[in-house]
Each structure stands twice: as C-alpha cells, then as structure tokens.
Specification:
Aldehyde dehydrogenase family protein; Aldehyde Dehydrogenase, Chain A, domain 1; 15 helices; 6-stranded mixed sheet; single chain; 25 strands; Aldehyde Dehydrogenase, Chain A, domain 2; Ald_DH_C; globular; 7-stranded mixed sheet; 2 domains; alpha/beta; Aldehyde_DH_dom; oxidoreductase
Amino acid sequence: MHTKVKEMKMLLGGKWVSGEETFEVRNPQSSQVIARVPLASKQDMSLAIDKAERTYQNTQVWPTHERITILERVVSYMIDHAEEFARIIASEGSKTINEARGEVKRATQTIKISAEEARRMNGETINFDQNEGSENRVGYHYRFPVGVVGAITPFNDPLNLVAHKIGPAIASGNAIVVKPASVTPLSALKLAEAFVEAGLPEGFLSVVTGSGRELGDILVTHPAVQMISFTGGPNVGERITQKAGTKKVSMELGSNSPVIVLNDADLHDAVQSSVSGAFSAVGQNCIGVQRIYVEKGVYSQFLDTFVTRTAELMVGDKMDELTDIGPMIEEKEAERVELWVNEAVSAGATVAVGGKREGAYYYPTVLTNVPESAKIAKEEIFGPVVLIQPVTDLNQAVELANDVDYGLQAGIFTSNIHHAFYTIKHMNVGGIMINDSSDYRIDAMPFGGTKGSGVGREGVRYAMESMTESKVVCFRLQENML
C-alpha cells in the first residue's frame, strides 16, 4: 500500500520553516519513506538559540498563570489528537499501536504534571537569626529559570521523552531548543504544533531537525545555552560533558537492568512482569529487564514458565492490535543484537527461545549460561534479549546485579520484607522496584541512575529543579528606621 510522503517543516524560533535540504524518515517495518524533514544547518541551530536567548531576555515577566494556561491547553490538544499522536509514534518508531497509545497517555500526563508543578515551584524562608548577631536579618530563597535549555532526545520514546524536556522547561519559565532523534522527529514536531496552537510565545520553543553530528556541538557549546538535558548513550554523554564546560548538565544514559527472583516470590507475577519488562518496545527501553537472577530453588520452574510465555508473544505488524513485538528501529540494530547474541553463544551461552532475526525484526530471546565476561552481560543490549541465571542466595544476586557500570533501576520479587530492605540498602541504583520488574516508572517520580547511568534526575519536579537556580534574599533591618 502506498503512503503519501509528508513534507514537514521544523519549528525555528517560533516559526515553521523549511530547509534547503531534507532527509527521509522511514517506517522501520517496511523501510517505506513516510516523511521528508528539514536537514537543519549549523546556522539554523545558532539562529534558534539566539532567538531563544532574545525571547527569554526580553520577557521581563512571564507569569506563572500564563505558563499553566499554555500547558493545560497543550494537554487538551493532546487528548483531542491522541490517536493521531499514537499513529505517528507507531509509524516512525518501533512501538506497536497499543504501546504508542500508552506513550501518548504518559506524555499527556507529563505535560499535565508540568502545569501542576508550575504552581508549586516555591522557595522558602530562611531563619537567619539562627546565627548569633543576625537577629535583625530576615529573608528567603526562590528559584529562577536558567534561561535557555538545550535538549537532545532519543528514538525509543519519541513523544514522552520530548515532553519530559519541554514540559518542565516551560513550567519553570525557560526557553528551550530541542534536537530530536533523526529517525523519529515527527512526534517532537507534532508536540511542538500543540504548543504553538496553545499560544506559546514565539521563541520559547524550537524543534531543530537534522544530524546530531552537525548540530550537537553548536547546541552543547553555545554560550547562551545554560543547561543541557540529554537522554541517550553513554559514549555521547561522555563527549557532552567534555564539551559543555561549566554548563549545568542532566543526563540519563541507559542501563543493564537486573531483576532478582527469590524462592519466596510469587512466580506467576514475577514471570508476567519480567516478560513485559524485558520485551516491551522490543527491548529498546532504558529500564527494560536485561538480567534476571533466580534463586536455585525456583530456577527451573521460573525458566520454563518464562520461556513458555516468551514463545507466546506475537511478532508482527505494528498496527495490528494483537501484535506484541514490532521491528527494531533499524535493521542495523537488529543485526547488532544478532551479533551480540552469537558472540555469547560462541562463548558458551544457550538460547532457550528466540535467537532469530528477520530483517529489522529480532525475535524475543532468552539466554542461559551466559559467561559473566560476555559483552551482552556487561553492556546495554537495547534489544529483545534477556539473560536468566541461577544464584545460591540474595547476597550473590545483589553482588552480580551490581557488577556492571550501570545503576538506573532494578527489581526484586520476594515476600520477605527483610530481603526487600537488604536489596534497597545494597543495590547501587537510582530506583528499586519491590515485587515489580525494573521497567516501572511514573512520570512524577525522580528518575535517574548511578555510575554510568547518568547525572542528575528527571521526573517533572526534579527536572524543574535542575532547570532553575536558587537565589537567596536577605534583609538587614535597622532598628532606628522602624
């Protein structure tokens, strides 16, 4: 079936503009071109940043109620156009239509929370008289926006992760320039359309489409950009920190998330939750389950049930509501996953189910007997592959779970409160989910990790804190003036 190719514009300084050059956006399922999008130049990016800085500097007062109103209008727009958003997500990315609809709901919630948190971005009074000699001093501190935020977003949640940049930035009074992933820019442009329709003043938002290599350095190093918010891979994240200098930086860099299943766990619940956590969004999920450590007493039963449930997953057309697993974002990514699995098998690993590629599709795969030194055991696979390993006890499970250079989220299944709290204390991660897989998040909670998983925290309120600075105000009162 032939699909009409859309000719898109980008939002540059509040204006919809075409580019001298364009690039193609393809549906990864069929490789069919679905849109042509402006290939922005370095000059385009500089113009967007300059416009953002001028807009911010020239807006002496941007009342909180106006920001709230705009965000609430965006929420209404997203609700009214929910199915259109979902079909864009499913067309340009890897998600099934059902997963895409779920992302639209989450993104709408993210913007709604941003409106709510704008009301609550308060400072507090300071008791200066706690110091001897300061009895005649009173004051407070309050938060003010950094000015211009630069945001770089990935392909795997092309709407909600953009919402997690734009929503908090606007709620806290900043201008923001977004560089979305080149393979999935359409969702970001549609969200920009929602903000334009909501009456966002020109210049507070730009969505600049094009090559990260061409545009990234300008965004990261431009002196007017006071903060970089990045979600992506650790190699790019490390280069950003080297180039950003003294700017504020918030980065979520992925993970190799572990789940622990103990003898006293509800196995049915553990399997259901972990299968979903491992294979939703084709495993292209920063908190997706990658390693499962199962206590020996229930290992065989857990593995058998997990493999059976995995084999039942439907691989197929993203737009079919019965489909569980769609294609990966590009065929080369499926080839990479295939290579990593084959390397592990050559080193002694066993494929319990899956291990098959068809074009951009990689079938849900369970590996056992994976050597600890294998790349797939240490790095983020970002694909539909999970490793299941027996352990003697909780201590060994926690030790193995911590033995990677990531620490975003983890999960444990147990009915023993002492086991739960041992894990809470000893797991080096940013979030620990009890009787849930690592793949659980709400958009209001602080989200981020330790070690190589990043710097800072997202989640609307916490992103707003990083996108603002605290200013202290102190009055020294003179008795003879009273």
